[in-house]
Amino acid sequence: MSKLPQEHKFIDLSDYGRPVARMIANSLKNTSCTPVQVTIGFIISGLSAIYCILQEYFWLAAFFLIFKSILDAADGELARVKQKPSYTGRYLDSVADIILNALFFLSIWFITDTPLWICIGAFLGLQLQGTLYNYYYVILRNKFDGDTTSRVFETKTPVALKGEHQQHVNILFRLYVFFYGAFDKAIYALDTNAGTGKIFPKWLMTSISTFGLGFQLLLISIFLVGGFKSVILPFFLGYTVMVFVFIGIRKTFY
Q: Which of 22, 41, 58, 111 places its Cα 20 to 30 Å from the Cα of 35?
């Protein structure tokens, strides 16, 4: 099942790994491998990238960062081809992402002379960027009967779907709210009426897809192999200003 109907699909710059992710998912369709196991695979890939960053093996770090992005898409694809969506997988994916993101930035801070406050600000900016992208994307997916395991604003623990345990959903939901609650509330406060406005144009969603985690990790990879490791944290801190630019465009025209 696609996330959006064909007529509303846009060029998602963060989703470059989707073709390979689909190949992985299709190869695992008739096996006992579960989406959660694929999620564990991207966690391992992310941790491998962190080790390589600390050792300054930047080409290897780039490989593991991009492979992590591919597996991050593959777990959802596998859930779709097996027709087994789950809140467990949805929240585990998100919780793993934010922890890995923090570790990515801390490892970059460790090998550069970047002040700690810039590292913290860059991480907060990175998460705010990703939250805006997810917020707008989920609005579209919900409007057009897309993936309903994701919600515009997480306020209540969902009921476990068939094949998963409510206790697992409860625990992971609490972790999700702990890690993402402040970011979700901030973006919701900045653009509360986004869900009631016009359909977002494709060009705007493509622009905002630069906030997607896949594209963010690609940029980090490019900076690392290009010899610009000291630019990474200041860049993501500065790029956060585009959150307010995109929200301003949405409010003014859509």
A: 58
